[in-house]
Amino acid sequence: MDTLDGVSAFFAACEQAHSLDEIGAALFSSARRLGFPHVAYLCGGLRAPPETRILLSNYPDAWRSHYRAQRYDRIDPIISLAGEALDPFVWSDPLIRARMSPRQSRILDEARQFRLGEGYVSPVHASFAVSASCIFVAEHPDLDPRACIAARRIGVIAHEYIARLVRRGDTHLGAVHRSRPLSDRERACLEAFARGAGDAEMAATLGVSLRTVRRHFEQVRRRLSVASRQEALVRALLGRAISV
User: Fold this and answer.
1) Are 202 and 142 in contact (CB under 8 A)?
2) Is residue 58 a contact partner of residue 135, using CB atoms and an 8 Å limit?
3) For residue 102, what pLDDT is reported?
4) Domain boundary assignment for the chain
5) What is 184-238's CATH topology?
6) Are 114 and 60 in contact (CB under 8 A)?
7) What does the pLDDT look like over 78-133, one tens digit per residue?
8) Which of 24, 110, 219, 220 is found 20 to 30 A from 191 (Cα to Cα)?
9) Domain 3-169, CATH homologous superfamily name and number
10) Which residues of the chain, if any, have pLDDT below 50?
């Protein structure tokens, strides 16, 4: 499956979803097609009260039972690191592993026995006033970079649609930001980014400097109240501010 098609298919599924369970089913199916048999979306933190937390996961039942029995929610290194990170990371990154205690590292070592060998963690910093992350998990470490890019977009899309359900349900997870209109040039940059263009290509196409392109993206992030270009892209698509 083409990764861009996978993102589009997930977007379409979320458009038709009316519940968290439906979004979760679409998330699990799309992740599987990208090569990630298991995925977990978490908003609010594992130790947060149930009424202020959302967890969608298809991790193996045996691992969940082991995880609960060992009370790993108290020391889970991935959840804590995801709450601090701005950019995606993988479990096996030496810099990530170096920040873990021996006991925390042992959690990941034990997870391999349950076919949870490598994870791609995508933090999300939009829509809610609480931390969220989407963790895509495969059995082996040879992750396809294109699949990881698609997974990041899917995680942000899932988060935004969950935000819509939360707003309609009047829960306590926080307010959804209102977006300010984009300029024509800002829309052009976002649409080019959606098509996979790099900054240099955008600058040449628009007849502006690299610095100008990057300034436009900074303005887009501020207007849409997001932390990354990926989140800006999804927010703009959902708000019909751009078309691709």
Assistant:
1) no
2) no
3) 95
4) 3-169, 184-238
5) Arc Repressor Mutant, subunit A (1.10.10)
6) yes
7) 988 998 888 999 999 999 999 999 999 999 999 999 999 999 999 987 655 556 89
8) 24
9) Transcription factor LuxR-like, autoinducer-binding domain (3.30.450.80)
10) 170-178
